Amino acid sequence: MPTKNIRLRIILLLSLFICLGLSTRIIFLSLKNIDEYDILETNNYNVKRGDILDRNGLLLAVSDELESVYANTFEIKSIENISFKLSKILNIPQQEIKYKLKQKKNFIWIKRQINPKQAALIKKLKLKGIGLKKEYKRFYPNKELASHVVGFCNIDSRGQEGIEKGMDVFLTPDLSNIKYENEENDIKGSDVILTIDANIQAFSDIILKESVLKENADSGSLIMADGRSGEILCMSNYPNYNPNDYKEYKQSIFRNYAIFNQFEPGSVFKIFSLASLLDKDLIDETDFYYCDGKYVKDNVTVKCTGIHGSVNYNGILKYSCNDGMLQASSLINPVDFYYYLKSFGFGMRTTIKLPGEQSGILRDIDKWTDRSMMSIPLGQEVSVNSLQIIRAATTFVNDGIMLEPYIVKAVFENNKIKYSKSRKEVRRVIKKGISEKVLSAMSKSTDTGGTASTLYLESLNFAAKSGTAQIYDPDLNMYLDNYFTSSLLVIFPLNNPRYIIYIVFHKPRGNIKWGGVIGSKTINNFLSHLTGYIDLNMQYDYVINEKNLGVNKKYQYIKVLPVNMPDLSGLSACDVIDIFSKVDVEIRVFGTGRVYKQLPEAGNPVNKNDEIKIYLKNY
Questions:
Q1: Whole-angstrom Cα distance, residue 230 to residue 423?
Q2: Alpha-carbon span 394 to 230, nearest angstrom
Q3: For a Cys-Cys bond, which of 63, 72, 171, 357 suits 259, CB 3.0-4.6 Å?
Q4: In the 8-state DSSP scheme, what is residue 157?
């Protein structure tokens, strides 16, 4: 046999043995308890996760120091005695502890994150071979508040849902460049500030829960956004959960319905159909369509909600007229209509820092059928999530320019800004002037006889569009008569649009299922609670109106430097970041709550690249 072949065989055999050895080791490690590798000797650092705060500095998630019990079984003399004593203190069956103590290991967890009373009793016993290690447990002081937004961590303080998962890379400290020393230190991750306002969120959570239960719906979602900036002010879902006790809930409860649920929006979608027609100059107010209660084409009949007679586009939205909408939509080329819907963002996820968002469904134009143009303009044969509707609606607040919605305002590490977000324009969707026409048409639905005529708050005018969409059953290949997705989109104030609210009920089973009716009742209740908290007719960029603080200050963006430093007292870190977001300065934040001290002081000059320090406390 040639020498070359012998060498080749030897090399192949050696490679095979190495691969088998590595594979065996990998399988061995995968079957062992990961706790065995959390050895104390690796380092003396205690990893503390960063905090999550609302826009006003209220803590939504925080890590609290607890102790965990471990054993070095080689040092244990009496398994029976120690297991008995620990069992009484830790409320664990003695047999379970004995099983662990019989294993020959330098380190094994007995129980993690015990309460202070249990820790004190164990310390007092001074059991040889039993030790306590400081760890941090995640706590959510506001319990169910914004639970689907905040999310939760597992016992190892790794994010599993919500912001805890979406921002895990920031909240968890980076240990790659740490030089371990003998002394024990805490290493803290970055703090994350959200755009959420905890007070608005609390009103929303409570009122949505009441409405979902009253309407006997499977679930509900409510989002409120600042349409001028893209900031999400609240994102509520019901059913919700208490993240402190996440193990008590089914996995399905953790889904953020506002971004996870995909549904046919129904007549809410008509505003985007109308905007496309207006932007293409295919219709105007002088064009009228006769509604006889049904639209017929190619032997296919689409029923209307009534017989509306002669209607222009204002009447189409006021009465949510299917017949008129389809007559008008027949004027647009399907390819053009498809690209308008793509431009509005349908079929595409947002860039929100939350896991689990679904993209919705907008089929490629080559997959549309002859019936598509009798379905899609009415919000059928297309699916969305609630946040996509919010994003698309920002187009009407910004005179044709769509903004990207966001929920993370800033990330702080060692009091310095590591990441911040502000208004981001996605694209111009429709030309100037079209939004005003759409909003005016939407406002007609709040008039007498309109689909949202019960939407009312004194001295405030709304643009609104309701949706009551039958739910399609793919197994039966038909729309169900008794199950609906009911929704209402509201933009206000009409004369100076800024805020967007979108509420959705999935499968309401009450006597009335119309989105305009049940949505109006809920939004009326919600906004009535906000009137004493924020100025809903606001003309300025920033308004804080909290009776307990006695603050009512108005600010605009600082756009050029140098400038005299404004008085920031009483503001949140989120507000200060916003005010200076358009200029080059470095902001350092100390504490949580609201500003009580600032450097430079009010009236002093601020120049490019200056450092601004703000000191916060809870009033």
A1: 6
A2: 7
A3: 357
A4: S
pLDDT tens, position by position, 111-141: 988 888 998 999 998 999 899 988 889 999 9
Would you call 579 helix, strand, or coil by DSSP?
helix
Tokens at residue 71, please?
A: 């054993």
Q: Rounded to whole angstroms, how far apart are CA atoms 160 and 138?
A: 12
Tokens of 226: 């600042």
Mind listing the pLDDT tens digit for each residue in 386-436? 999 999 999 999 999 999 999 999 999 988 889 999 999 999 999 999 999
**Mean pLDDT across 50-79:** 91
CA–CA gap between residue 306 and residue 314 (Å, rounded): 16
Quote the CA–CA distance of 601 and 610 in Å, as a whole number: 13
Query: The tokens of 419 are what?
Result: 């990441």
What's the CA gap between 137 and 99, in Å, rounded? Answer: 26
Residue 564 contacts residue 612 (beta carbons within 8 Å)? no
First-residue to last-residue Cα distance in the chain: 89
Q: Token pair for residue 308? A: 């509306």
Place of tokens 């140098």: 562
As separate numbers, helices (DSSP H) first and strands (DSSP E) second, the chain gives 17, 27
> CA neighbours within 13 Å on the CB side: how many for 189?
25
Helix axes 515-530, 198-214, angle to 10 degrees: 150
Q: Which tokens sit at 592?
A: 């949580």
**Could you tell me the CA-to-CA distances from 110 to 40, 358, 480, 566 in Å, in that order?**
14, 41, 54, 56
Which pTM value belongs to this model? 0.82
Contact criterion met (CB below 8 Å) for 444 and 315: yes
Gap between the Cα atoms of 481 and 471, Å rounded: 8
Burial class for 578, CB neighbours closer than 10 Å (0-12, 13-18, 19+): buried
Identify the weakest region by mean pLDDT among 10-14, 120-124, 173-177: 10-14
